[in-house]
Amino acid sequence: MGNSALKAHLETAQKTGVFQLTGKGLTEFPEDLQKLTSNLRTIDLSNNKIELLPPLIGKFSFLKSLALNNNKLTALPEELCKLKKMETLHLNGNHLRQLPAAFGQLVALKTLSLSGNQLRTVPTQLSGLRHLDVVDLSKNQIQNVPDTVGELQAIELNLNQNQISQISMQISHCPRLKVLRLEENCLELSMLPQSILSDSQISLLAVEGNLFEIKKLRELEGYDKYMERFTATKKKFA
């Protein structure tokens, strides 16, 4: 892509606070964006071929939304965690295996999408994020859901299309979790904690495509309690 085209994008971004350059075959994060560290609220560089997010990302202190879907990222820099105003982070379709240790410092984060990466577990760093609403970890290589999930503040957790065969009972203690998606995993019915049905806030549990028939779920103790929450929620939105 020519410099003049990039320059035009930068000028627009300076006025709007939005820099969007998708599907242009970029192989690196445009260094010229440094000039706009105090202007930019939104950066969208999805559908490119970026392999590395440079440490300078930490300088965009007013950034609220960052999208890097469908790139070639294998890791994220610790500097990303300095973005205290960031509310939305979309990193679907990359090659990420883990999150930076300091990820819990992204205190304003509300929406996190990491679908189609190579995560093997639910990152423990997510448990400290108080404003998290939606977490999408679908299409990864997650095999179990650890105890730390009990501190997750999310309202919706999407774990569809993983390889989950074990879930910690602590998931029933999630204070705000209403929607839990576990479709197309490797769960036996005996491995689904019954407390999700009897003692949680969860009012939508999606478990199609696992190693049991859905009708067997209805025979579990606590299913009636779950249905009460499910119906109450449905009425609220009807």
Q: What kind of sheet is the major sheet?
A: 9 strands, parallel
What is the element string, with H for helices and E for strands? HEEEEEEEEEEHEHH
Helix content: 10-25%
Strand order of the largest sheet: 1-2-3-4-5-6-8-10-11
Task: Please provide the count of β strands.
Answer: 11
The Cα radius of gyration reads: 20 Å
Which descriptor suits the 3D outline? elongated
Report the sheet-strand fraction: 5-15%
Average pLDDT over all residues: 96
Whole-Å distance between the termini?
Answer: 49 Å
Compute the number of helices: 4
And the CATH topology of the domain at 1-118? Leucine-rich repeat, LRR (right-handed beta-alpha superhelix)
- Named at the architecture level, the CATH assignment of the domain at 1-118 is Alpha-Beta Horseshoe
Uncertain residue ranges: none
Which structural category fits the helices and strands?
A: alpha/beta
The CATH homologous superfamily of the domain at 1-118 is named: Ribonuclease Inhibitor
CATH class of the domain at 1-118: Alpha Beta
Structural commentary:
- The protein is of the alpha/beta class.
- It has a domain at 1-118: Leucine-rich repeat, LRR (right-handed beta-alpha superhelix) (Alpha-Beta Horseshoe).
- It contains 4 helices and 11 strands.
- Strand 10 (179-181), helix 2 and strand 11 form a beta-alpha-beta unit.
- The longest helix is centred in the last third of the chain and has 15 residues, at 223-237.
- It is elongated and about 65 Å long.
